[in-house]
Amino acid sequence: MRSSDYYRDRRIDLLLNSRVSSLDTKRRRILLEDGGELEFGALLLATGADPVRLPVEGATDAQLHYLRTFADSKAIIARAASAKRVLIIGASFIGLEVAASLRARGIHVDVVAPDRQPLERVMGAEVGVFIRKLHEGHGVTFHLEQTVSRVSGRTVTLSDGKDLEADFIVLGVGVRPSLILAEQARLAIDRGIKVDEYLETSVPGIFAAGDAARWPDPHTGERIRVEHWVVAERMGQVAAKNILGHSEKFDAVPFFWSQHYDVTINYVGHAEKWDVVEIDGNLDARDCSIVYKNGGRTLATATISRDLQSLQAEVAMEAEKQPQQREVA
Q1: What beta strand segments (E) does 80-195 contain?
Q2: Segment 232-270, tens digit of pLDDT
């Protein structure tokens, strides 16, 4: 994203096409795959997450596509240039956003997922029904509560025995945090790299940020891990300040958005479970807010065509806690 001059002028050594093979926390060194070593005074792990790769019986590697990198995106676009029909496995954000993109190119799209409704586990059944209708209105065909049993050439057989045709398959079935380096270094792990409120791991001087990090969230009172780039960006900023000794707590309210054709869903907060969903407005009219509560406390708010209300919800959540800073020794 930057020129080589940018990094050089700021005394940043950017090592491209290079991977770290292990961390030596006692000697404060990292070992590179090419045998080189680097010393560190402080270290930030931003290893991200890797796509969950499903075994699909009979499918070749050339038939299966994932979307995690720019190269993945270009590969899907290249295949789409000559495709007539595409099958997507997974009815969450990645799968549905790919579906919308392919439909914009005039390609027939089948979506296969074990869920009762798209996005139901993240946003609830009512929003799931709305999302399904939205995509169906643009020509997407859903095969819900189904999985792929096998592939033979262009024929994809579902768990109910139905056969579909597909030029290629896109899998959007989630990601797993990349923990190999952290595990090898024996950092504390809790379904992610465990960090404190300052994003420091169990080893002093080693920090973690982004999809791989699980932190104590002051808004829910629980440890959470969030897989959205705005959160990763904000975590990186706070981790950098703390590496420089500022002792700033990471207490930002998580935020993301998802685009489906001309409909944008904004989401602030974090709700893994809830007991009440309050909808103000009308989903079908594409003008509403959806509030997720648990035990009477608002955990998250999703909005459609209500950007101001989304910002107000974020401000309200920010005001619920009182940031405190750790004293610098």
Answers
A1: 85-89, 108-113, 141-144, 148-152, 155-158, 163-165, 168-171, 175-177, 193-194
A2: 999 999 999 999 999 999 999 999 999 999 999 999 999
